[in-house]
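User: Please fill in residues for this 141-position structure.
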C-alpha cells in the first residue's frame, strides 16, 4: 500500500510542477519588456512625424517615462528643435508638451500612448526586417 501511495504522490507532484511552469511561462510572456534601443527608434519615428508638421517650431517633450539616455538622444533627431521639460512646466499656458506613456508589448506589437496637452493617441508598432514601423493593431489568436 505504501508503494502505490508514493507513486500517486509523485505523479501528483509532477503534474503540479508542470502546471506551475506553464503558468509562470505565460506570466513572463505577458510581462515582456521592450529594449531601450527599440524605444529610442519608436520615439524617434513619432517625433520626426511631429517635426514634419511643425517645421521650425520648438517641440517640448515631457521627461516623464523617459530615461536620461533617451532624453539625451532626442537632440539628434533631424530637422527638429526638441526641448525636454519637466511635467510641471505644463502648468505654464505657453508650454504644451508632448508626453510618452508606458510602452506595452503584446505579441509582436508594441503600443505607446503619445500626445500633447490637447490630444493623444495610442500608436502601434511592429518590427519588420530590423526596422520599427507604425501599423494598425491586430489581435492575434
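Assistant: Residues filled in for all 141 positions:
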Amino acid at each position: 500500500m505504501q508503494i502505490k501511495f508514493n507513486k500517486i504522490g509523485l505523479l501528483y507532484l509532477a503534474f503540479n510542477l508542470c502546471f506551475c511552469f506553464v503558468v509562470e511561462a505565460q506570466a513572463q510572456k505577458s510581462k515582456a519588456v521592450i529594449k531601450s534601443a527599440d524605444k529610442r527608434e519608436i520615439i524617434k519615428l513619432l517625433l520626426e512625424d511631429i517635426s514634419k508638421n511643425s517645421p521650425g517650431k520648438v517641440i517640448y517633450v515631457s521627461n516623464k517615462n523617459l530615461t536620461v539616455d533617451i532624453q539625451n538622444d532626442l537632440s539628434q533627431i533631424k530637422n527638429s528643435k526638441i526641448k525636454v521639460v519637466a511635467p510641471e512646466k505644463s502648468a505654464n499656458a505657453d508650454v504644451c508638451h508632448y508626453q510618452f506613456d508606458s510602452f506595452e508589448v503584446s505579441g509582436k506589437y508594441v503600443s505607446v500612448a503619445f500626445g500633447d496637452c490637447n490630444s493623444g493617441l495610442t500608436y502601434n508598432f511592429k518590427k519588420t526586417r530590423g526596422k520599427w514601423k507604425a501599423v494598425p493593431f491586430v489581435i492575434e489568436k
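For context: The chain has a mean pLDDT of 77.
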